[in-house]
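__Record contents__

***
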Amino acid sequence: MDHPPIPAALPPAHGRDAADAAKCGKKRGSYNCGRCGLPKKGHNCTNIGLESVGVKLAKDGAIEVDEYSQTSVSSIWAVGDVTNRINLTPVALMEGEALVKTLFQDNPKNLIIASQLILLYSLLSRAVPSAVFSQPPIGQVGLTEEQAVQQYGDIDIFTANFRPLKATLSGLPDRVFMKLVVCAKTNEVLGLHMCGEDAPEIVQIFVLLFFDDKL
């Protein structure tokens, strides 16, 4: 049975996007990663007509909103990464759900509660965990070593590199790496970073270290 000829391979999607952007004279925003749980950099809110309708933007390019996620234009609301509160998918979902209840279910208190939670997380922003769902996955919460040095100066670093128990019993070569960033003066935990199976789930329990007596 004859088969039709296989078409030539298409260029990578990002290549086409970059070429199209170049033709339009526009720059794409810079991001840490595309499909993971890490906060993204860049909001791409400029040059899309927001200013022409009166929507106010912050200095970093994010859309300014009030506690109800309403912009400076009363008929326009914004949630998610474009507001640059906490740029993570679960937060955007919570904001969107609260906004729907506010606009269509006449229940604005839900959004107020959501905003209070967002404010709390903003005050304790390093207590928000994030993950890269790679193989093996990466999970982290708190400050990086570089950030800790900038903010606290003298720090201690503790690391562990080991084979998990099930890998030991099964003979698999899997390993886990963990790194703890601690303030040398106060022994306060500043950051935890982990690479290994189930790391995104495991780091969530360490969020409690950052709340301590702050709540």
Summary: The first strand starts at residue 130 and ends at 132.
